[in-house]
Amino acid sequence: MPLLLSKYLGIAFLLGLTIVLFNVFSSTGEVTGFWHGISLLFWLTVGPGIGLILGALARQWLMPDAVYTHDGVLGLFKAKLFWAIGPQSMGWLLGLFAISEQLN
Predict the structure, then answer these.
(1) I want to staple 23 with a disulfide (CB 3.0 to 4.6 A). Which of 30, 35, 63, 79 is the partner?
(2) Contact residues for 11 (Cβ-Cβ < 8 A; gap 6+)
(3) Containing H/E element for 32?
(4) Neighbours of 22 (CB within 10 A)
(5) DSSP 58-78
(6) Is 53 exposed, middle or buried (0-12, 13-18, 19+ CB in 10 A)?
(7) d(CA 95, CA 42)
(8) Three-class HEC string of 14-68
(9) CA distances, 46 to each of 55, 66, 79, 80, 99 (Å)
(10) pTM for the complete prediction?
């Protein structure tokens, strides 16, 4: 479980850092100061990180042992791609929605 926590919190930190750095160096003017950037990075790590962890736990609980499709290789590829990143992505988005008020 600790590896799971560090893995998904690290992914959330890297995504949050990318978002903050993009807003610092672009002309959007969304990041108004150093501590505002640190606050954004904190909230973009915590909320979506928890969402990623919950999505990973849901994936482990709900993922089927075998996937059967009528669409051939493309259907199998889509199913495997969904189960590889789908639940975690939905968790990240739900975590982002949960902390959206803190990002102002």
Answers:
(1) 30
(2) 49, 52
(3) none
(4) 12
(5) HHHHH--S----SSHHHHHHH
(6) buried
(7) 13
(8) HHHHHHHHHHHHCCCCCCCCHHHHHHHHHHHHHHHHHHHHHHHHHHHHHCCCCCC
(9) 14, 33, 29, 28, 9
(10) 0.83
Q: Look up residue 85 and give its two tokens.
A: 């990143």
Specify the amino acid at residue 69. T
Q: Which tokens hold the place of 51?
A: 């969402």
Amino acid at 73: V
- Give the pLDDT of the chain (104 residues) as one tens digit per residue: 667 678 899 999 999 999 999 988 887 777 888 898 899 999 999 999 999 999 999 999 999 988 888 989 999 999 999 999 999 999 999 999 999 888 77
